[in-house]
Amino acid sequence: MILAANFKMNHTRASTKLYIDRLQICGKPENIQIYLFPPFTALDRYESVAVIGAQNGYPARNGSYTGEIGLEQLEEFEIKTILLGHSERRHLLGEDQEFIAKKFDFYKQAGFEIFYCVGETLEVRKSGSKELMEAYLEAQLEGIDTAYEKLVIAYEPVWAIGTGQSATPQDIQEALAYLRTKSGAPLLYGGSVKPQNIAQILEISECDGALIGTASWDVEQFCEMIQIAKEL
Ligand code: 13P
To answer: Which sequence positions are flagged as catalytic?
Structure first.
């Protein structure tokens, strides 16, 4: 089972270090793989029970790409895991599928483990159409090697992210079942996962773990979720 914390634009270098220290005490149950995606400024070679990944990366080793970081900068900290296709990058930062697929290909060539996010908008969800929903998810897999052996897919419906309103177990089960027809990769759910609902989510068939934003920023809550997952 995988539990991953996406810090997004939260935590500093100093607070990430404290977080990682506390996480060591919390420990790593045998059945769980833990991942942390801190902001770029907090990346380092940490001694940690968690694998440290990057939230993004430009598809180049280095070069004239102001404001971006590439493979060379990630290699300095031995980062070998990357999050791509997150809805905030798609919808707030305007990344299109072609660019995301280019990043995917580049980091795949570099041998990275890739956490790849997909998820429908509220409009698509509200349509109630299974066909529309599946076509939307399928379009987000365009140009992506779904057979890549170091791929993890996270289903994160846009409307459930940061809203406190998680998708229902049935919604999640249906989306994961569809994604399972496309890939043998571990499938995660993300979107308002918290200590109160994580057990129910992890028990969904085809759900191999969770990608957690808000509730993971407090290390005590993240530890609590690790403990809950350990008991399942
Ligand atoms: P929240 O847990 O804050 O809804 O965020 C989910 C997410 O976007 C993880 O990548």
So the answer is: 86, 156
pLDDT score at 171 = 95
Residue 140 sits at the vertex; the CA angle it makes with 177 and 149, to the nearest 5 degrees, is 65
Predicted TM-score (pTM) above 0.90: yes
Is residue 140 helix, strand or coil? coil
- Looking at the CA of residue 37, tell me the nearest atom of ligand 1: 10
Pocket flag, ligand 1, residue 3 (CB < 6 Å): no
Give the integer Cα–Cα distance in Å for 76 and 228.
35
Q: What is the dihedral sign for C-alpha 198, 199, 200, 202?
A: positive
Straight-line distance from the first to the last Cα atom of the chain, in angstroms, rounded to the nearest whole number? 10
Within the chain, residue ranges assigned H as helices are 13-26, 71-76, 87, 97-109, 122-127, 130-139, 169-182, 198-202, 219-231
Instruction: Tell me the residue type at 127.
Output: S
Q: What is the CA(64)–ligand 1 centre distance, in A? A: 31
CA atoms within a 13 Å half-sphere pointing along the CA-CB vector of 13? 6
Task: List, in order of start, the domains of the chain with CATH numbers.
Answer: 2-231 (3.20.20.70)
Q: Of 142, 151, 64, 67, which is closest to residue 107 (Cα–Cα)?
A: 151
Nearest CA to 108 out of 71, 156, 78 is that of 71
pLDDT digits (tens, 9 = 90+) for 79-135: 999 999 999 999 999 999 999 999 999 999 999 999 999 999 999 999 999 999 999
Alpha-carbon gap, residue 65 to 15, rounded angstroms: 28
